Amino acid sequence: MSTYDKIHGLLAELRRDHISPIDILIQILDRYPGNLYPDDSTKLMELLEIILMDLNVIGNYWTMETESILPGVAVVTPDFIENWIECTPFLTSILTAASQTERAKKHNKLKKPDKMVQVVTRQLLYQSSDRCLAFQAEFGLFLWSTGCARQTIDALFRCGLSVGCDSVLSLVQLLGDGCTTEAAEFAATQPHGLGYDNMNISTSIFVEQRGANGPTKATSGTFGVLYGLRNAKLEHMLIEPIM
After folding, report:
1. How far apart (Å, rounded) are the C-alpha atoms in residues 122 and 95?
2. Which superkingdom is the protein from (predicted)?
3. pLDDT per residue over 121-147, tens digit each?
């Protein structure tokens, strides 16, 4: 009896017991019930090579992972900035395996590929869709906040590492509006304090000259800071006992 005939007979037995070949594979690879798959076996590698030969499978899985990625600039909110998480485990595992050897994985204590993998992931997402701006949006904001020149931001935009300078300015406006909305909602419901301070901003001699619409060499102003009061109650905020 050939191997094919043996497998065909086993499949008939499995169908009667409502067991699929995938169920068997999962059971073999699951190390909790028992060591059914020896460490020195190469069968799993052969199976993965067959799967990887079908690019449609990889493409479909990649598409599934990217469906929930950031859908555009407008949703870069203050909450998103604080809670950015990794959301492409399949691609991340591939890039992590490609970015370091097994020896490096065991012995390197300081040099980790995590940040590089995230950067490459976000570049690939951005190349796939210009609405996937998670890394590019945050990095663009970082460049702007550190005084990076417009030409540099636009050059990094061409490399897929940042959004364009105009988009960065739109992000700043969106985040400012979002923070203002959060502050208004907080002030309407929670005890809070209001502080303020003066500021002076000086730009370099390389600041872009655009007449009345451009930034000035020196800017002065006052900004407010709204902050919550810990353990405070609304009755503590009454003015009459204080006066």
Report:
1. 12
2. Eukaryota
3. 777 776 666 666 767 888 888 998 888
